[in-house]
Amino acid sequence: MRNVGIYYAFWTHEWDVDFTPYIKKVGKLGFDQLELNGGTVNSMSSKEQKELKKMADDEGIVLSYGIGLQKAYDVASLDEKVRQNGIDFMKKMIDSVANMGGGMIGGTVHGYWPSTLPKELESKEPCWKQSIKSMKELAPYAGERGVKLNVEVINRFEQFLINDSHEALAYVQEVNHPACGVLLDTFHMNIEEDSFGDAIRRIGPYLSSFHLGETNRKTPGTGRMPWAEIKQALDDINYDGPLVMEPFVMQGGQVGRDIGVWRKIVKNPDLDKLAADAAKFVKENLV
Ligand code: MN
């Protein structure tokens, strides 16, 4: 049974928000899981973190955490001081998630976001090496605390280190630690992969989390994503991790800006209804 989740920022204009309303409502909309901004959780006190976790437990909701590391915390930086700051930040975040009973942190945990190849470089090899060095330190730290780090395969316009499933496979095999897995996202796969099914089967047992979205980041089931092919491949690898939709349809705020929502993507959006319809679609077609 695959948990069906949603990323909280579907409802918000800013990344840093109070998560309470979303923890309270996603269960009623048909979800088992809510993905939160790890950075926000990391800035909360230990007591606040525990209260948030208790609220989720009371609602029967599993929590997971997403992060796009900031440049100052780039674990792939060639500047050792910056890389060390990144490791310290990630360790604090792992501690935060451990304080909330453990779980998954996914996203650009392997470098900063959004980013492009540093101007002085012709190849990403030096950054790759730095990232691997960081992850070889972070994965055991996470594993010992009941936390898993999932590197998200992100398209070329947002990140440069891991753009497709071939690179993701090479990365996790080089790290070679059970607490480092892969997060595939249909929105990014649509840009970079030759085949959805082959990419999922290539990652196989390393696939730890899966993000859902249409090609324009609308809710699953409203566009032209090949969901039947995706479901078949998930079945082929006996995938039992979460399916977390990550739709963005609202203009405005830092979320609209960072995601690039510059037009009215849906008319008169009733976000709760869109989310509930999508949860139903995913449960019927992908679980
Ligand atoms: Mn994603």
Give the integer mean of the pLDDT values.
Answer: 97
Largest sheet: 8 strands, parallel, barrel
The gyration radius over C-alpha positions equals 18 Å
Ligand names: manganese (II) ion
Strand-and-helix sequence, N→C?
Answer: EHEHHEHEHEHEHHEHEHH
Examine the secondary-structure arrangement and name the CATH architecture.
Alpha-Beta Barrel
The helix/strand class is alpha/beta
Number of helices: 11
Q: Which regions are unreliable across 5 or more consecutive residues at pLDDT < 50? A: none
Q: Given the C-alpha coordinates, what overall shape results?
A: globular
Q: What share of residues are in beta strands?
A: 15-25%
What is the rounded distance between the termini? 6 Å
What is the compact description of this entry?
This protein is α/β, with parallel strands linked by helices and 287 residues long.
What does this structure look like?
The termini are close together. The longest helix is centred in the first third of the chain and has 20 residues, at 80-99. Strand 4, helix 5 (125-143) and strand 5 form a beta-alpha-beta unit. The chain has a single domain, classed as Alpha-Beta Barrel (TIM Barrel). An eight-stranded parallel beta barrel has the order 1-2-3-4-5-6-7-8, surrounded by six helices. It is globular and about 45 Å long. Helices cover 43% and strands 17% of the residues. It has helices at residues 20-25, 38-42, 46-59, 80-99, 125-143, 165-175, 186-192, 196-203, 227-236, 253-259, 271-285, and strands spanning 4-7, 33-37, 62-69, 103-112, 147-152, 180-185, 207-212, 243-245. The structure holds manganese (II) ion. Manganese (II) ion binds at residues 152, 185, 211, 246.
